[in-house]
Design a protein that fits this description.
The complex is a heterodimer of chains A (115) and B (112). In chain A, 0% of the residues lie in helices and 56% in strands. Chain A has strands spanning 4-6, 10-13, 19-25, 31-38, 42-51, 54-57, 64-70, 73-78, 87-94, 105-106, 110-114. The radius of gyration of chain A is 13 Å and the shape is globular. The N and C termini of chain A lie far apart (37 Å). The relative contact order of chain A is 0.33. The chains are: A mainly beta (115), B mainly beta (112).
Chain lengths: 115, 112
């Protein structure tokens, strides 16, 4: 079974802090994704990566950056946290670039509160 | 680009009753379709997927979904709901790109 692990289930930070959310997958997947989930809005894609050191902006990249130095790890960075970034963050991975019919596999999420 | 609509924000059914959750998609070619379930405080778990072949797809936990191209729909069904099915359900559509679009979700409440 695919295992996607997010480093924290709950996180509380202060406005203006730099925040790191970490995600690790154990199945050698090429693709990794960061989503934000808010009530009534479903999942919105922040960034995705299709290979090491490669990244693409999603629908809502403003205020975020990402890092993928190793294939198994994909980090989401809030450069200067703001209260409107309080949300549930979900990481996902998917097998094989080009095999778009493969499902994404999700971590348990990080509930981030910015005070 | 593809998009997906889940018309029902919240559905309540009695335990043992049948269930149908609606999903409509928009995409110009044959879509890849998925249903996920999310229990409170958890990530999303894949229930089933469709990308070709038989339009009636069986999934885990007794769920099935039917792809109807003429109606651009991929509704999720279960003949008899259990209390443990209470959760939020997301329909997703992918295409021949790295883009996957999720619906806003349908929250299912199960009455005893």
């Amino acid at each position: 079974d695919v295992k996607v692990t997010q480093s924290s289930r709950y996180l509380v930070k202060r406005t203006g802090e730099k925040v790191f959310l970490e995600c690790v997958q154990d199945m050698d997947h090429e693709n990794m994704f960061w989503y934000r989930q808010d009530p009534g809005l479903g999942l919105r894609l922040i960034y995705f990566s299709y290979d090491v050191k490669m990244k693409e902006k999603g629908d809502i990249p403003e205020g975020y950056s990402v890092s993928r130095e190793k294939k198994e790890r994909f980090s989401l960075i809030l450069e200067s946290a703001s209260t409107n970034q309080t949300s549930m963050y979900l990481c996902a991975s998917r097998q094989d670039r080009g095999r778009f019919n493969q499902p994404q596999h999700f971590g348990d999420g990080t509930r981030l509160s910015i005070l | 680009a593809q998009s997906v609509t889940q018309p029902d924000i919240h559905i309540t059914v009695s335990e043992g009753a049948s269930l149908e959750l609606r999903c409509n998609y928009s995409y110009g070619a044959t879509p890849y379709l998925f249903w996920y379930v999310q229990s409170p405080g958890q990530g999303l778990q894949l229930l089933l997927k469709y990308f070709s072949g038989d339009t009636l797809v069986q999934g885990i936990k007794g769920f099935e979904a039917e792809f109807k191209r003429s109606q651009s729909s991929f509704n999720l069904r279960k003949p008899s709901v259990h209390w443990s099915d209470a959760a939020e359900y997301f329909c997703a559509v992918g295409g021949n790109n790295n883009d996957m679009r999720f619906g806003a979700g349908t929250r299912l409440t199960v009455k005893p």
